[in-house]
Design a protein that fits this description.
Two copies of one chain form a homodimer.
Chain A (H helix, E strand, L loop, with lengths): L12 H9 L4 H10 L2 E2 H8 L4 H13 L3 E6 L5 E6 L1 H20 L12
Antiparallel strand pairs in A: 1-3, 2-3
Chain A binds a DNA duplex through helix 4.
Chain lengths: ~120, ~120
DNA sequence: CAGAATCCAAGTGGATACTG
DNA sequence: CAGTATCCACTTGGATTCTG
């Protein structure tokens, strides 16, 4: 859902952006990939509790929107790595203030770690 | 969906914030109220195409999350005004970079007007 | 390992009608 | 005017199973 997917159907930049990051796991994916590239299963474990189908779907959408890059290595066993594109990185930067707001205004519970977005 | 509603169920500030602005019309409401207070029907017309039920539900959630303030005037005919709280205003500020990102990276179509969030 | 396919559950949004 | 009350449709996400 986004960028080229629904051209001219937004009323302001925010709901356009919301369409890109609207999926339930997308911001978490963004957050993870902001650190380093991840393999599929690895990413799945990192998010904890996403089914393959859903994660694959969200990654496909993020790829279509030019947010993540999908690199397939022709090996056995198969290996696929996901990473942020430049646009994805810029999206993450734009998301930073919102992350800060959430941390200040909403109860977050994760274990003490790097203060992510 | 938010703040006090799901304490300790987020992994980072962003998905916490996403829970607050997750509704389909919420960011549009935020955007409108950022300009000035609105009455119910007025707001509904401004958004264009929201049903009363849905708008009422979203406003109620935003109110529970401390984003909007609901002021009831005891008059005939009844009058209710919605406005941003301080927290709502700060959320809007945190949303600004995302709005800028959306405008630069996604096709937005609205008529030339004040560059909103 | 990295998914595709299928089927299903739930949440979310919408249409319409009615009320204080 | 500002909602509430129902009922309904669709989208999203999830569980399970299967494959290159």
């Amino acid at each position: 859902m986004a960028t080229v997917r629904r051209p001219g159907s937004y009323h302001c930049g925010i709901d356009a952006a919301m369409d890109v990051i609207g999926g339930k796991w997308k911001v978490l994916v963004l957050w993870a990939l902001d650190e380093r590239p991840y393999r599929f299963g690895e990413l799945r474990r990192a998010l904890g509790g996403v089914t393959e189908k859903v994660l694959a779907a969200q990654l496909r959408e993020l790829e279509e929107d030019g947010i993540v890059h999908r690199e397939v290595y022709d090996e056995v066993p198969p290996r696929v790595e996901y990473s942020l594109t430049a646009r994805g990185a810029s999206l993450n930067e734009a998301l930073a203030p919102l992350g800060a707001w959430g941390r200040q205004n909403v109860a977050v519970v994760s274990p003490p770690q790097v203060p992510g977005p």
